[in-house]
Amino acid sequence: MQVRRHRMRHKTYFLVMENLFHTPVPIHRRYDLKGSTYKRSLAPESRVDPTIALKDNDLEREGEKARFPRLRIDIGPERAARLLELLRKDANFLVTYGLMDYSLLVGIYYSTSGTGFRVCEVSQLHPGLEAAFPEFLCQLHCNEVCACRTNEPLPSASPDTDVPFWRRDLGGLASRDGSKLYYVGIIDILTKWGAFKRTENAIRVVQTCDSYGISCVNPAFYASRFISFLERHIV
User: Fold this and answer.
1) Which fold is adopted by the domain 29-118+164-232?
2) Cβ distance 222 to 216 under 8 Å?
3) Is 154 in contact with 147 (CB distance < 8 Å)?
4) Which ranges carry the PIPK domain (predicted)?
5) Burial class (CB in 10 A: 0-12, 13-18, 19+), 38
6) Domain boundaries, the chain
7) pLDDT tens profile 39-96
8) Which is nearest to 101 in space by CA: 182, 200, 18, 27?
9) Angle between helices 219-233 and 77-96 (to 10 degrees)
10) CA–CA distance from 123 to each of 14, 26, 128, 148, 159 (Å)?
11) End-to-end Cα, the chain, rounded Å
């Protein structure tokens, strides 16, 4: 007699995410930003490792070292406004589904020249870069000639309307002075605000006497705090 096993059927969902740091240039510094403060800093010995993401308090500390009230992601007011608007929409979407504890991952590439990107600099960083970004490098070469004549920082490449504005500069966002490239994206978006997280929230509040600085808070408050933090740092 043949016995057949009946297995319960259920749906399995696969979420495929792009590697934010699969970039044509090396990432010199990374930040994992939530907008919270409780345990949001690295140990001093870990801060020197460029492969480890610094956190919110580390970002504030770097700003103090540079004698600024806060360290800024300086991409210019127009692009900053557009980026923040997209982040608000993403945060509101996550609130709708009761999700929290996500982060904005930021990767920074520092130009070796300190004044902008040079063709010889960027074309040697990654094999096949000329084929992947021919228009960017062509525009960069023209800008480089002009900049050498006028002794001015290099402007970004001309925008390509088919490419999202946050990916037009070698897949990222160039800083206003052209000395840095930023790669940004929201990560860790699968944490649901349920009974476990509510319990964790209650415990953390009792432990810290700080309902604002802990990471584990309800989705609406999490999103509001997240965006408020980014509004202070993206300019």
Assistant:
1) 3.30.810
2) no
3) yes
4) 1-234
5) middle
6) 29-118+164-232
7) 888 888 888 888 889 988 888 777 544 545 557 889 999 999 999 999 999 999 999 9
8) 200
9) 170
10) 36, 12, 8, 18, 19
11) 73
